Amino acid sequence: MTVLVDTGVLFALFDSEDAWHRRSAQWLQNFDDDLVVPSPVLGEIGHFLERDGDARSLVGLADWLLQHRVRLENVAAQDLRRMTVLLSKYPGLGFVDSAIVAIAERLFIDTIATTDRRHFTQVRPSHAERFELVP
Asked: What is the pTM of this model?
């Protein structure tokens, strides 16, 4: 099984004070299959970690991303077209979350590791009835 990873889970992994830290860390530690991290997530997580001034977390994130089971996925032109539809249909979704949905649809991934239950439960993906959200 392949799971797409959102910003919140990564932030929680590197911020021990985050309410999702323990659950996210345990889930990621016990998950043995492939993880896909959309490239827009990198900018968002980098911004949040830099905002907190934690250089060790930035190094930890880069090191974590080098793991063999983590694949970075860029936004393709077809994703941008789909994102415009998603952003029009779900105005509060935002750029990064719309990219996550578009990439998940393109790659036929129906499981998203996220702390954002509000946005991802509202979206109806084109390739599945709904997303499965973990942890």
From this structure: 0.92
